[in-house]
Amino acid sequence: MSGLSSHVPDPRLLTTYAEHEDSPFHRVNAWTKVAVLALLVVAVTIADGLAAVWALYVAVLAGYAYAGLPVRKLLVWYTLPVIFVAAIAGPLAFGIGGRPMVELGPVSITWEGTATFVTLLGRGLTVVTYSLAIWMSTPYASIAHVLGRSLPSPIDQVALFAYRFTFVILEVVEDLLAGIHARGGRIQSDFWENRSLYGRIFGHTFIRSIERSEALLKSMNARGYHGDLAVYGHVDRPPARELLAVGAFALGIAVYAVTVAYGVMP
Q1: What is the SS3 string spanning the chain?
Q2: Which residues of the chain have pLDDT under 70?
Q3: CA-closest candidate to residue 99, choices 91, 89, 108
Q4: Spans of all domains in the chain
């Protein structure tokens, strides 16, 4: 587990699930998972109303649980997405008129504003849940291959290095925190009093991460790295049944868009 916080997904735990667990979702082709992610983003974007958005979320959560992935940890990992959505969409809820639900002097929270906030939260949690499911069910070699083939260079290399350096930075921060704890320090309490300590940790992390990244790049160059990480992985084309399932999903989204979401066809 991450020594930082249980509210932050540990990349090492996610990778362990991807490399060592086995479930029906683990056996789905990586290209299929990425295609469904793109379609899912479209689906939650055009979903009309609270019920449609949360129906998508329940379906994704059911698939997540069916794949044997940790649901209890997922609920704790929702902390950051919920804070993010609350920071972005929370103020919007106060600006939407309608029937007042809670009145705080001149400001009131309406039922319509609350519904908008909960709908945006459902859209965000749906995409977050499915993205974590992909990360926890797809080996790194498959992710490297898909990113290398779908993203233009050098964006694919930046994405792959960012993935790799996540582990490096995490190790550096945990080493610093272990040193602080060994000397009796605590940063979880009295945040403001420890603000200078946070600043030093950030500075040390930045400097040591650069040193570790330079050492990593030199070791990769010594092993023949020539600017293409994608050559180390390979993913076959999706089987026909998965292509049909993706096509049916895309067709369903298109029909929903023209009949319900935008009303182009009655």
Answers
A1: CCCCCCCCCCHHHHHHHHHHCCCCCCCCCHHHHHHHHHHHHHHHHHCCCHHHHHHHHHHHHHHHHHCCCCHHHHHHHCHHHHHHHHHHHHHHHHCCCCCEEEEECCEEEEHHHHHHHHHHHHHHHHHHHHHHHHHCCCCHHHHHHHHHHHCCCCHHHHHHHHHHHHHHHHHHHHHHHHHHHHCCCCCCCCCCCCHHHHHHHHHHHHHHHHHHHHHHHHHHHHCCCCCCHHHHCCCCCCCHHHHHHHHHHHHHHHHHHHHHHCCCCC
A2: 1-5, 93-94, 106, 184-193, 227-233, 265-266
A3: 108
A4: 1-139+234-265, 154-227
pLDDT digits (tens, 9 = 90+) for 220-242: 778 777 766 655 567 888 999 99
| Token code pair at residue 164 | 């790799």
φ and ψ at residue 154, rounded to 5 degrees: -95, 15
Spatial distance between the Cα atoms of 95 and 236, rounded to a whole number of angstroms = 50
Burial of 240 (0-12, 13-18, 19+ CB in 10 A): exposed
CB-based contact 209:172 (threshold 8 Å): yes
Q: What is the pLDDT of residues 136-179, one digit of tens each?
A: 999 888 888 888 788 877 777 777 777 777 777 777 777 777 77
- Distances from the Cα of 159 to the Cα of 4, 16, 37, 147, 233, angstroms: 23, 20, 17, 8, 15
